[in-house]
Write a structure and sequence with these properties.
Layout lengths: L2 E5 L5 E5 L4 E2 L6 H11 L9 E7 L5 H12 L3 E7 L6 H5 L3 H4 L6 H9 L5 E5 L2 E6 L12 E6 L13 H10 E9 L4 H10 L2 E6 L6 E6 L2
Parallel strand pairs: 4-5, 4-8, 5-7, 8-9
Antiparallel strand pairs: 1-2, 2-3, 6-7, 9-11, 10-11
């Protein structure tokens, strides 16, 4: 499918899939969305702790990189598993401007290491951040009861409804510890109902720019 780099509402760039009119991040602001959905509504629930984060849709690595920076402010020791079926190309990554927009050019080596590190291996990005990238379909995740927080950042249900089903959320539920959380930009009724059917406690939260609501789920 044809893809292009676009500039989002906050000046940060993302990748758009032209055939779907779908973006890797919100066209209203890639960095704003990452902070609102995954940091403010997810990572902020934890301080002074060791935790395992599972990201569904590693994509451009933006969420992982921001988590690396923000975890240091919260005294968090992170094990981060990013699952991605179709990795972003090196050519596309070179056109993204996250380091500049985050005022983090001095951390280029860490950002590059996140993308250049081998798949299916644990890689130390910093002394308190271990990254494991797994190239696979989401339905093939086999993690059992070790995850504290899930960033569910798959492409939207409009274009990939099979990623927002009871089957997929059962896999997420099995991966999570008791009292763990899942956060996503999505707010569709069908997504919420699938979460509820699996057994999650689900709350609606104010959404990022351009969206009225988002969802946060907790495993009982």
């Amino acid at each position: 499918m044809k893809r292009e780099i676009i500039t989002t509402g906050d000046g940060s760039k993302t990748i758009q899939i032209l055939d779907w009119q779908e973006q890797y991040h919100s066209k209203h602001g890639a960095i704003q969305e990452a902070y609102h959905v995954f940091i403010d509504s997810g990572l902020d629930l934890f301080k002074n702790a060791a935790l395992h984060i599972l990201e569904i849709g590693f994509g451009t690595g933006l969420n992982a990189f921001i988590t690396l920076m923000e975890s240091e402010k919260r005294n968090l020791n992170i094990t981060y598993t990013g699952v991605e079926a179709y990795p972003v190309s090196v050519e596309e990554l070179r056109q993204l401007n996250y380091l500049e927009e985050l005022d983090a050019v001095s951390r280029k080596n860490e950002f590059d290491l996140m993308h250049e590190s081998p798949w299916q291996e644990d890689v130390e990005i910093s002394s308190e951040f271990i990254l494991r990238k797994e190239q696979k379909d989401f339905k093939d995740i086999k993690i059992i009861e070790t995850v504290d927080l899930i960033y569910f950042d798959a492409f939207g249900a409009r274009v990939q409804p099979e990623l927002w089903t009871v089957e997929i959320f059962e896999i997420m539920h099995k991966a999570m510890k008791s009292e763990a959380y899942l956060v996503t930009y999505a707010a569709k009724g069908s997504v919420r109902r699938a979460m509820l059917e699996v057994g999650f406690l689900v709350e609606r939260l104010p959404g990022p720019p351009g969206k009225r609501e988002m969802l946060r789920a907790r495993k009982k």
